[in-house]
Amino acid sequence: MTSTLALSLACAPPHDPASGLPDPSGEVVLTDANNYDFRGDLDGPTVPLAEYADASLAWSGLVEDLQCHELDPVEDIDTAALMIFPLLSEEEVEVGLALDTLRQVDLGAYLEFQPGSSTTATLSDFTFFGTEADIWQDFDEGSGTWLVTLNTGVQVGAGSRMFVFLEPSPVSEDTHVEIAEGCGVLDSEADLEALRPAPVLEEGPWEVDWSAVTTNGSGVPFQANRVDEVSLARFDEEVSVLEQDFLDLEFLAAEHYRLEHPGGYSADLADLVDEQGRSFGGFGADGTWLLALRCGTCSNPAPLFLTALKVGGRPHE
Fold this sequence. Notes:
This protein is mostly beta strands. The protein is built from 4 helices and 20 strands. It has 2 domains: 17-39 and 188-311, no CATH class; 44-184, Immunoglobulin-like. The strands form 6 sheets. A 5-stranded mixed β-sheet has the order 3-11-10-5-6, with no helix packed on it. A 5-stranded mixed β-sheet has the order 14-20-19-16-17, with no helix packed on it. It has a 3-stranded mixed β-sheet with strand order 1-15-18, with no helix packed on it. The longest helix is centred in the first third of the chain and has 10 residues, at 90-99. The two termini are 46 Å apart.
């Protein structure tokens, strides 16, 4: 005989994510309606330099990065990258960096230099992965947009802490660049209040699925294959406060759990761990819970997807 419970479950309508209630099965289906809105505008310095000069760069005075975070110019800069965009203007490059929409076909040349304990470099120091390029011989007006980024880590295109445009000028006699004052280069705004919080069970299970997401926080197509970290954090502050301090969220979290994501469209929150290696055990503590899908290889450090969680039917703070 079929039990009443089994019959009830079989006849129950499919769960509606828009109901504001968690799915009894524990599945958390994320959609575009759950995602935050992020706007980030970049306005980096431009330095006119003499054409065909082996110009030098120095960053010993760079003590704050473009997110206004403290920076050690020796310990935190692992790689300097030089990129030439033959057909893009500076403004187009800045928009591409902010939206992470630059394509390999846009790039005419990519060179790098690992400074070690030094805080200086010349154009001749930049190599094509170890092969000397003497790129300064191509430094002339009309050759394109020249961009130098100072990065933490050695991952190509990621970890940028500051950047500067080098402008080949037939009238400039300058051959030196001082890179400093990163704070103010990035103007950003995040909207966390307009999103629809994703409902989750208080004690699990928590199988998060983002296969239905089509756009990222910046409004461009969402690329699921670029998600390499799932992050879950609890904050004592309300959402309105977190919006104001969005670039400092990592420093404000009362609890923070992460998972290096190997690929696919889903993750189990039970697999996330904190810095001490402790697994996430549930939403027992009150506060604002934010779930983020991140891309560590993207030029824009803002999460691809970020939402507030509505735990067990109770509203987020």
